[in-house]
Design a protein that fits this description.
This protein has 210 residues and is an alpha/beta fold. The protein has helices at residues 14-29, 43-53, 64-68, 85-94, 109-122, 136-146, 171-192, and strands at residues 5-10, 33-39, 60-61, 75-78, 98-102, 126-129, 157-162, 202-207. The chain is globular and about 65 Å long. Bound molecules: nicotinamide-adenine-dinucleotide.
Length: 210
Amino acid sequence: MKDNFNVAVIGAGYWGKKVINEYLQLAKENGNVDLSMVCDVKDENLTYCRDKFGVSEEKLKPSYEEVLSSNNVDAVHICTPNETHHEICKQALLAGKHVLLEKPMAMRAKHAWELVGLAEHNGLILQVGHIFRFNNALKTVRDLVAQNYFGTLYYLKLQWTTLMSSPFLDSFAREFVLLVLLHLRVTVCLRCGKHRSERAPQVHHTRKGT
Ligand SMILES: NC(=O)c1ccc[n+]([C@@H]2O[C@H](COP(=O)([O-])OP(=O)(O)OC[C@H]3O[C@@H](n4cnc5c(N)ncnc54)[C@H](O)[C@@H]3O)[C@@H](O)[C@H]2O)c1
């Protein structure tokens, strides 16, 4: 794969906008990557990308077929709704584009396997965007498991909690309530004298957003 490549984002909805912003930052920091096109069937999302991110008019496309037929696109990042993943990804691979496909790969396992086969057959990279795959907290947990830190594992539960806004609490009150609950939880665990090897480890990653 060449060092310098152009990426197009297909789907500029909630997630796509974040992704587009990341590519634009990457392009600023690293001249090897460029956001060559943005595609969405909704005009308002294209307008948003133009006004908010400064994506030029000629890069905004309402049809992904036009993106796939462009020689100026090496890879596509597909951020469209789940049920469209298989078809758009398939067309992208057939058009010779490398693909970063948002999770889930497809709605049916056989469709996912078909995409894997197509990528292999055409010598293309197909990557699936699972958000926590390269997360440092998960990497640490995996290292700890490998070091047998937890003892014998029978059950592993990973929970991702989200700080949603509440109509009843302002942000300060919400942080305060969370701190109190966290303190209570730690205290209860300590009082119960739970030994680390007897408990199933739980990883709580809390962040604002999705
Ligand atoms: N990796 C992660 O952590 C993560 C997080 C959030 C969402 N996602 C994934 O991202 C995808 C999009 O989620 P979302 O919340 O942004 O949805 P969304 O509905 O906000 O955005 C989807 C966008 O795709 C556009 N679209 C639909 N069909 C299209 C087509 N044929 N061609 C071009 N554009 C088309 C829609 O107009 C919409 O703007 C989903 O598959 C979701 O699972 C991944």
